[in-house]
Specification:
The termini are far apart. About 70% of the residues lie in helices and about 0% in strands.
Length: about 200
């Protein structure tokens, strides 16, 4: 049976969304094509009508992950007051909800440890996405009046990702929550965000 371009596009999008969620939760190596297609309600053989290889799927799914993160970021920073918007983003990023939502969380935190083992196309998508996220933070920090905003955006992203990753490694829930709360407080102080709270 032949499907029209719209159906093929929707099917491809469904596969990519399932792959993005699975890659965030289990890493690229933890995702098998057969299981992914079954989860998407499709046959294993149908995979190759959309992607040439698992590596191609991973690279495109990373792009989808960053697109989702960008949409969430833009929605969070849509407020007119950049200080309030940044405070809201820090609160979201360093929350127990984000820590525990590995299948929907930030792609930088989800994939940082896997980059060295991935193909060049996937690494390029990751680099493009993480650079764009740091730039968006820098732009918001510039509107807030922070000096050397591009460097501050890169630093803030590194601090957010590091704190989130560390909070995920701790087995004691109270200690994990403390890492998130202490890091959020330090970032808010460093970037003069605490006045909005």
């Amino acid at each position: 049976m032949r499907y029209d371009a719209e159906h093929r596009g929707k099917t491809r999008e469904k596969i990519l969304k399932e792959a993005a969620s699975a890659i965030r939760a289990r890493g690229p190596e933890g995702v098998g094509v057969a299981a992914l297609m079954k989860q998407a309600g499709l046959t294993h053989g149908g995979f190759y009508a959309h992607f040439g290889s698992k590596d191609a799927l991973v690279a495109e799914a990373i792009g989808v992950m960053f697109e989702e993160a960008r949409n969430r970021f833009d929605w969070t920073l849509a407020e007119a007051d950049p200080r309030a918007a940044l405070d809201k983003y820090v609160g979201f990023y360093l929350s127990p909800l984000h820590r525990d939502a590995r299948g929907r969380g930030c792609p930088v935190a989800a994939l940082s440890g896997d980059m060295a083992r991935l193909e060049p196309a996937a690494r390029e998508r990751f680099a493009t996405g993480s650079t764009a996220l740091a730039q968006r933070l820098g732009e918001a920090l510039a509107r807030h009046g922070i000096a050397n905003a591009p460097a501050a955006g890169r630093s803030m992203l590194a601090e957010l990702v590091g704190a989130l990753l560390l909070s995920r490694t701790v087995t004691d829930p109270a200690e994990s929550d403390a890492i998130l709360a202490d890091s959020a407080a330090a970032i808010r102080t460093r970037y003069r965000l605490e006045a909005t709270r």
